[in-house]
Amino acid sequence: MGFNNKGVDHLVSRLARARYRGIRGVSIGKNFDTPIENAQDDYLACLRKVYAHADYVAVNVSSPNTERLRELQARDGLQRLLGALLEERLALQQRFTRRVPLLVKVAPDLSPEQLSALAQEVRSVQLDGVIATNTSTDLSVLQPPPTAEQRGGLSGAPLHPASVKIISLLRAELGGDFPIIGVGGIVSAEHARETLRHGANLLQIYTGFAYRGSALIEEILQALPV
Fold first, then answer.
1. Would residue 214 show up in a list of annotated catalytic residues for this protein?
2. Of 27, 63, 136, 155, which one is the catalytic site residue?
3. CB pairs under 8 A, 24+ apart, for 204-208?
4. How confident is the model over 119-165, as pLDDT tens digits?
5. Residues above pLDDT 70, as percent of the chain
6. Contacts by 12-17, CB closer than 8 A, 24 or more apart
7. Gap between the Cα atoms of 190 and 205, Å rounded
8. Strands 56-60, 102-106: parallel, antiparallel or unpaired by DSSP?
9. Packing angle, helices 160-174 and 112-124, rounded to 10
10. Phi/psi at 87 (nearest 5 deg)?
11. What is the phi-psi region of residue 179: left when phi exceeds 0, alpha when psi lies from -120 to 50, beta otherwise?
12. Cα–chain-centroid distance for residue 190?
């Protein structure tokens, strides 16, 4: 499945013409047919092209839809990738005279041990934040269970419990001052409040917005303290 889109050049052309003046995050990842050993080449190419148009960049190493991509969450793979991206950002920061934050997007299926190792690495390289979480490969929560032919990541309300669990563990590992963007199954104001209670600083909404539109945004804003 991969990241189906028209490519980074098409994205950049759209961003350059956009009139939106809010905060824009751009997610980058490797092509489905790029060997995992060469993954950082794709990430670096994307970072260079989107840097001038992004307010922050999400380093996606956790989508289940690209074969072997999640291997980059392991310490060695993450260290090489983030090291290369942070070094490239220094050059881009000087060129464009602006510093674009880099955040890594993680999976909800990591064990506590894997999550602890990831958090240590993120802290050691002084990354700007974590986005938790991507979609899940654990489809056992669905009733009836999906057929074997159904693949991909689980999103929407069934994802929420796993997402907030990871956010809570990350907050404990990263401390109170490290930025975490909470995402995963936020389909109501209560889900938004729960995500914040577990340690998220900011919220992202995907499936909930697809199903409920701006009504969900209004519901959340009315429910949160000013």
1. no
2. 63
3. 204/131, 206/155, 207/155, 207/156, 207/157, 208/156
4. 999 999 989 999 999 999 988 888 887 776 777 789 999 999 999 99
5. 98
6. 12/49, 12/50, 12/53, 15/50, 15/53, 15/54, 16/53
7. 13
8. parallel
9. 50
10. -65, -40
11. beta
12. 22
Gap between the Cα atoms of 175 and 121, Å rounded: 14
- 79-127 pLDDT per residue, tens: 999 999 999 999 999 999 999 999 999 999 999 999 999 999 999 998 9
Residue found under tokens 């997007």: 105
Smallest CA-to-CA distance from 69 within 96, 94, 32 is with 32
Separation of alpha carbons 29 and 40, rounded Å: 9
3-class secondary structure per residue, 120-186: HHHHHCCCCEEEECCCECCCCCCCCCCCCCCCCCECCHHHHHHHHHHHHHHHHHHCCCCCEEEECCC
pLDDT tier at 178 (50, 70, 90 boundaries)?
A: very high
Cα distance between residue 182 and residue 133, in whole Å: 7
Q: Residue 65 carries which DSSP code?
A: T
Kind and range of the H or E run holding 23: none
- For residues 114 and 86, is the Cβ–Cβ distance under 8 A? no
Contact partners, residue 14, CB within 8 Å, separation at least 6? none
pLDDT for res 57 = 98
**Residue 76: which residues within 8 A CB-CB, separation 6 or more?**
none
DSSP sequence for 83-113: HHHHHHHHHHHHHHT----EEEEE-TT--HH
Q: How confident is the model at residue 198 (pLDDT cuts 50, 70, 90)?
A: very high
Q: How many CA atoms lie within 13 A of 171 on its CB side?
A: 17
